[in-house]
Structure formats: structure tokens, C-alpha cells
Design goal:
It contains three helices and 41 strands. It is mostly beta strands. The protein has two domains: 339 residues, Pectate Lyase C-like; 133 residues, Trefoil (Acidic Fibroblast Growth Factor, subunit A) (Trefoil). The strands form seven sheets. It has a 19-stranded mixed β-sheet that branches. It has a ten-stranded parallel β-sheet with strand order 7-10-12-14-16-18-20-22-24-27. A four-stranded antiparallel β-sheet has the order 34-33-30-41, with no helix packed on it. The radius of gyration is 26 Å and the shape is globular. 47% of the residues are buried.
Length: 490
């Protein structure tokens, strides 16, 4: 089953751990660095240069480093390896301690030890961070956390063979799950996660509050969802991309379920899945900024009976069995796709209320500001991004046009931002028409998607360029950072 030697900690490390526990917070991070690496085919683990393990088990080496490092330590895993056989009867996993960071530096953990192997797992341990990890093979879960608050996961790739009877990518939950569970955890931050081949959900949460997810990529998931949020509160997701999700079930690229309340997602891209977006019953207050859904076997957007207060602001659904399926008993629903509104609560303008005033409009991807090209004051002048010089041609007066619509007036010229099909985005004299009106839809990071009222779509930097002087235009929304703008008051 493998062998290895575990060394006893030296006096120096004992002093460090004692000092941290005694209240020396500055010492914790400075004194706690673990290294796990292969040398001549042997796994070794050191903490602050002192060796604690040598042997043939990757998981044992990492766990020994974690156990001998202080809370708050960073453990660097320098090579790829495999789980090997499960040496016991319970779950065999890498298990970080409180507030520790596991940085795999792009290396792979191959799980090949049976149905109870999990790459990284922990119960009731707060402040864990897992970075830059690739998981392959057949784990029960790629990552599994229960009762863990303030969890951070970023740059995680899971390539599953799909053979496990569970076969789930990432699961984060409270210790006892259920609708309106009183046993809850809080604080989940996910950067980018890419999951393929799992038998069930790519990413699932249950009874977790305060969730922020930047991007989930899910593909070839036969029985589960790409992202499944159960019994969640204060949930905001930037984007989910699903390809061939729930091909043997009726789940969805994104599914909100089990009394989740007030969840928001900025962008859903779904291709060849059972459903694109599925809002279950007893799930209230969901908001979806934009959907791009095609080839759904069941429906593009499904709103289950007893769902309440659900809005999809905009999007496209094509080549699906049903574009929109709103079940009897769902109330206060409005789904706007393909230029049409569906539901019983569509008598309003989409968007957010923005305080009138003068702002810089800063592109999220580049940090550059929207300006009038060459500070021109004439009609038909074009718009571009540029470095902030503080000029009036880089400032825009936001004026309320009623019904959550706004006009944008350039401070330098007094001209108004205008969109039409022939000239695109440009300045013009005020004419009172909808092509000079815009709505603002807030995204997860606090930036806004700026939507022309006459054409839909979004105001964007052309082709996502970060170059000085790159043109700004109206385009099709794809949830990208060059299509999101930060409003900075003057």
C-alpha cells in the first residue's frame, strides 16, 4: 500500500507554531511555507526547509506538509502524481488545515485508487485556498468540502473518466443539507473552473451563502448540471459555459433549486444540453443578464411551477425543443429572448437605477476610459478607449430618460451618445429618440453592461482590444470583460 518516513518536527518549528498560537499574526505567513516534490522517484515534503516526509505516496507527502505547517501556510506542490490505492476504508484525500493554501502550480493529481478517493477534501475547516490544480482519473469528487467557510478555488481543471458511481466535479455544502437548512456555511469564491466528463454535476453547492463565481466551463456531463445551486443565498455568478450537459437527464447548464433565493448570473452560454437555464419551484428572485442558448433537447429556458420573481433580461435561444417553457403556477416571471417577452411580469424596463451625474466610463478589461475621438465637438464624431487624461471629452453626463433608461451626454461637446444601424456608435444632437437611450445592467464585479434601447446588444471595445485608441462600438453581448464598464464619478 506504499511506504514512507515521517520525521518529527524540530525545535524551531515548534516555537513558530507556539508563537503563532500565542498571538504573533505577522509570524504566521512569513514562517509557514511547505514544499512537496519528487526527487529520484521519491516524494519529499519540507516545511521551512526542514524535511518531514520521504516515501512513495503523493497524498501522504502533501498531508504531512500540511500537518507540520502552521495555520495560514502555503504548501507548494511542485510535481504531478497519483493517489495510488486507498490505504483504508474511508475517504482518501489531500486534507489542508485551517487557512492553508495549496498551490499545485498547474500540476496534475491523477485519482486511480477506487471509489472513495477524492483529490482534495475537508470538513469543518475554514479559510482553505486551492489553486492551479488539474485532476484526472476517476475520483468520487474532484474537490469536496463540507462545513467549510471562506473557501477559495481558482484555476481548477477536472478531466473525469465518468466511471465513478458518484463522479461529481466540485461539491461545497454544509454538514447537513436540506431546504432552508439552519446548518449553513458562508463565503465561497471560485475563479475559473473547467470540468469535463463527470457523471453528475460539474459544480454543486448546497446550503452555502455569499457565493461569488467568475467562470464555470462544463462539458460532456451526462446526468447532472454544469452549475447547480441548491438552497443558496447571496449568489452572484459572472458566467457559465456549457457544452453537452445533461445529455441523459433533464438537468441544465445552470440550475437553481431547493429554495435558492436572489441568485444572479450575468451570462449563460449553452450548447447541446437538455436545458440552458432551469429555475426550479420555490426558487425566488433569480436574475439572468443574458442567455446564449442553442440546441437544447428539452427547452432553452425552463421556469418551474411555484417559482416567483424570475427575470431573464435579454438573450437568444435557437434550435431548441421549446425556446421558453414557463410552467403553470410560476408568478412574476419575465423572460426576454429573441426580441420577445414571455411571462406575466414584463411591463417594465430592464436595468438598474443609476444616479444622475458626471462619470468616467472605464472598460473593465483594459482600464482605459471611453472618450470622443480627438476631443471632437462635431456631430458624427466617433468614440474610442484611451488612457485617462482627465479631459472633459472623457467625461459623460448621465441623465435620467425615465423607465430605467438613461442618456449619455459628452461634457466637452454637449453631444449625445447615439446608436444607429448605419453609423454605429457616435455623437449627435439630442433628438429625443430611443437610439439615444441606454439601460445599465450591473454585473458581478460592480461594472455595468450598457445596452442601447433601440438595438439591444451592448456597448463594447472592438474585438476586446486593449490598445490605445481602439474603437468603441455596439455589439452582441458575450459576457466578456471588454463589454463591461465601471462608472467612476467625477
Amino acid at each position: 500500500m506504499g511506504s514512507g518516513r515521517i520525521f518529527q518536527p524540530g525545535i524551531f518549528l515548534v516555537f513558530i507554531i507556539t508563537a503563532v498560537g500565542a498571538g504573533f499574526p505577522g509570524l504566521r505567513a512569513a514562517a509557514s511555507t511547505g514544499e512537496v516534490f519528487l526527487r529520484d522517484g521519491v516524494w519529499r515534503a519540507t516545511v521551512n526547509g526542514e524535511e518531514f516526509y520521504e516515501g512513495d505516496r503523493m497524498f501522504d507527502a502533501i498531508n504531512t506538509a500540511c500537518e507540520n505547517a502552521a495555520p495560514g501556510a502555503t504548501i507548494n506542490i511542485r510535481e504531478s502524481g497519483e493517489s495510488g490505492p486507498n490505504p483504508g476504508e474511508g475517504v482518501y484525500a489531500i486534507r489542508p488545515l485551517e487557512h492553508q493554501t495549496l498551490d499545485f502550480h498547474g500540476n496534475t493529481v491523477h485519482c486511480n485508487g477506487g471509489d472513495l478517493v477524492v483529490a482534495v477534501a475537508r470538513d469543518r475547516t475554514d479559510g482553505i485556498t486551492v489553486l492551479n490544480l488539474r485532476v484526472t482519473g476517476n475520483p468520487r469528487y474532484g474537490l469536496w468540502f463540507r462545513g467549510c467557510n471562506d473557501l477559495t478555488l481558482d484555476n481548477i481543471t477536472i478531466e473525469h473518466t465518468g466511471e465513478s458511481p458518484v463522479g461529481l466535479g466540485i461539491r461545497v455544502a454544509s454538514m447537513s443539507t436540506g431546504r432552508d437548512s439552519p446548518d449553513r456555511v458562508s463565503g465561497l469564491r471560485i475563479g475559473t473552473v473547467t470540468v469535463s466528463g463527470t457523471r453528475t454535476h460539474a459544480v454543486e453547492t448546497f446550503s452555502v451563502d455569499n457565493i461569488r463565481i467568475d467562470r464555470v466551463n462544463a462539458s460532456d456531463i451526462p446526468l447532472g448540471s454544469g452549475l447547480q445551486i441548491n438552497d443558496g443565498r447571496d449568489v452572484w455568478i459572472r458566467s457559465v459555459y456549457g457544452e453537452r450537459v445533461a445529455t441523459e437527464s433533464t438537468y441544465a447548464t445552470v440550475r437553481f433549486a431547493n429554495v435558492t433565493r436572489g441568485a444572479r448570473i450575468d451570462y449563460i452560454h449553452s450548447r447541446g444540453s437538455a436545458r440552458g437555464f432551469y429555475n426550479m419551484g420555490n426558487v425566488n428572485g433569480a436574475r439572468v443578464g443574458y442567455v446564449d442558448i442553442a440546441d437544447s433537447r428539452v427547452s432553452g429556458v425552463s421556469i418551474h411551477r411555484e417559482a416567483n420573481d424570475v427575470q431573464v433580461f435579454d438573450g437568444v435561444v435557437v434550435n431548441s425543443n421549446n425556446d421558453v417553457d414557463i410552467w403553470d403556477g410560476a408568478t412574476e416571471v419575465c423572460i426576454r429572448v429573441n426580441g420577445e417577452a414571455h411571462g406575466d411580469a414584463c411591463g417594465f424596463e430592464i436595468g438598474e437605477t443609476v444616479a444622475e451625474g458626471v462619470y468616467r466610463l472605464v472598460a473593465r478589461h483594459s482600464g482605459r476610459v471611453m472618450e470622443v475621438t480627438e476631443a471632437a465637438v462635431r456631430s458624427e464624431a466617433s468614440v474610442r478607449q484611451a488612457s485617462d487624461t482627465g479631459g472633459d471629452h472623457q467625461h459623460w453626463r448621465v441623465e435620467d430618460a425615465g423607465g430605467n433608461r438613461f442618456r449619455l451626454q459628452n461634457v466637452e461637446s454637449g453631444q449625445w451618445l447615439t446608436v444607429d444601424t448605419e453609423r454605429g456608435l457616435h455623437l449627435a444632437e439630442e433628438d429625443g429618440n430611443r437610439h439615444q437611450n441606454f439601460t445599465f445592467i450591473r454585473t458581478m464585479g460592480g461594472e455595468y453592461r450598457i445596452v442601447p434601447s433601440n438595438t439591444g446588444g451592448t456597448v463594447e471595445v472592438t474585438e476586446g482590444s486593449t490598445d490605445e485608441g481602439a474603437p468603441v462600438r455596439s455589439g452582441i453581448y458575450q459576457g466578456a470583460s471588454h463589454q463591461q464598464w465601471r462608472l467612476e464619478p467625477r
